Amino acid sequence: MAKGIYKIINVVNNKFYVGSAVDLKRRRIRHFSELRTGKHNNKHLQAAWDKYGEPAFIFVVLEEVDDSVNILELEDVWLKNHVGKDYCYNMGKTATAPMLGMTGELSPTWGYVHTVEAKLKIGASSKGRTQSEEEKVKRRQTMAGHNVSAGTRAKISASLMGDKNFNYGKPRSDEFKEKVSKRVQMTKENTTTEYASIVELREATGLKPATVNRALKSGKPISRGPFTGCVIQYLK
Question: Which is the CATH superfamily of the domain at 3-106?
């Protein structure tokens, strides 16, 4: 099993795709299999393959290394020097995150539409999945300190209004009606204000439902905005 750096070269125009592998032979088989079936994730290389045909491409081993060498770091050197040049098919600028920064039409999945069968499978797997405590901690850590711009917040809000909201037109359960009609209070330092319901509190303060719900469930003070430090609780 050979480990190292390789190129897939278009012998017609000398353009190339560069990569690394712990098993060069297996990587070659995978690349050419995906290209033959039109499923390669690099759309530039796939388009060239479709245009020139398989005989125009060769797989060349540039360097074989031993197990002590970090091949991803070695590949990064090649990517740094060649990605973005008109002779290089690679799109990602780092081996550890090849799709980083590829949005819109640059993304290899741009315009892709899942089949109905695939959507059903994704939905079924998502419903049955429960995040572990470790995953929850990691997710909270990645979001800590993340500031969403006013423009982004406005877009999110607009996307959830009216018939765009997933709860639009759905009847509310008796449990939900009872919860939102409970009396609540907002406390900051030594000042407490009582409200007849969550709705009244939201109308008086302008707080979003998600902010109020989060504060009620966690029991922790609001962490940002004009009501920073306020604690919201149900009245017993």
Answer: GIY-YIG endonuclease (3.40.1440.10)
